[in-house]
TrEMBL record, chains A, B:
Keywords: DNA-binding, Transcription, Transcription regulation. This is Transcriptional regulator. It comes from Zunongwangia profunda. It comes from the Bacteria. Residues 10-71 form the HTH asnC-type domain. SUPFAM superfamilies: Dimeric alpha+beta barrel, Winged helix' DNA-binding domain. Gene3D superfamilies: 3.30.70.920, Winged helix-like DNA-binding domain superfamily/Winged helix DNA-binding domain (1.10.10.10). InterPro entries: ArsR-like_HTH, AsnC-type_HTH_dom, Dimeric_a/b-barrel, Tscrpt_reg_AsnC-like, Tscrpt_reg_AsnC/Lrp_C, Tscrpt_reg_HTH_AsnC-type_CS, WH-like_DNA-bd_sf, WH_DNA-bd_sf. GO terms for cellular component: cytosol. GO terms for biological process: regulation of DNA-templated transcription; response to amino acid.
Amino acid sequence: MKIIDQNVVIDGIDKTILNFLMEDAKRPILEIAKNIGITGAAVHQRLRKLEKSGLIEGSRLIIDPRLLGYKTMAFVGVYLDKAVSNPLAVNKLKEIPEVIECHYTTGNWSIFVKVLCKDNEHLMKVLNKNIQGIEGVSRTETFISLNQQINRQIKI
Amino acid sequence: MKIIDQNVVIDGIDKTILNFLMEDAKRPILEIAKNIGITGAAVHQRLRKLEKSGLIEGSRLIIDPRLLGYKTMAFVGVYLDKAVSNPLAVNKLKEIPEVIECHYTTGNWSIFVKVLCKDNEHLMKVLNKNIQGIEGVSRTETFISLNQQINRQIKI
DNA sequence: ACTGAAATCGTTGCTGC
DNA sequence: GCAGCAACGATTTCAGT
């Protein structure tokens, strides 16, 4: 777990550059530069500074998993027998490709995960065989996302 | 809501290309091409085909929001008075920048949202003022993510 | 920190296989 | 559907301010 002890200080120009690229990482730098009113070289310098600061983690190509048959998204609250088995359970969850998020949360559950499956049958297999099969998992509660209406990054 | 009625058919080479770029959208195409054993031009052709199919939604620059002071992530289950107020509530949620995901789910809640705030005080403001202030919202249940251990896309 | 130009590298289009 | 090459466009670097 990475410890964050200090914020990165950025100005309005940095924010504009980041907001552009957070929407579309392939947006030409010269276009962004023209929009701001500085040259492409200046934008590039700022991007290098932001990369070095660790604020920029990288870039990802975003695909629509539904077009590959992944049509069932679900959230699963996981109860663990003892709190001590948490890191072990997380390691086991990492090995399940259908698990795309995993959180250690306050409240009823020890662990909260987001899974993406092809259909309900696939989800059932992941729940019963993979997740329930992990040592220490006593019970799970599942919520199927019938429709995701918002999916975005924070506006900075 | 986009209706998906047919899957996009892709082969192993397409999968390899996509998996590379889903991890790092800036990965040089020539490098990927060499890895597969075809030319960069061929990789381009396939990418254009995949874009046209709608499978590729775009690319995003990924930043670490914690370095900008956004250190509190939470999941909020929202109870609505009547099911009919759902689309209206979603529209109101879209106007709250701290709401980064919104799902229509099975189970106890009508709507399930993921919010990203600077700290607990900020979260409290978003909950009490913004979310609870939406017409039709009767009650909310909040789970704070103390630590996100997995965050990835589906492996195809 | 930014500019402007030069060099480098990635992308796209074309022709032939 | 892919290779090879040429033309284009974008990124990156660097001296100068």
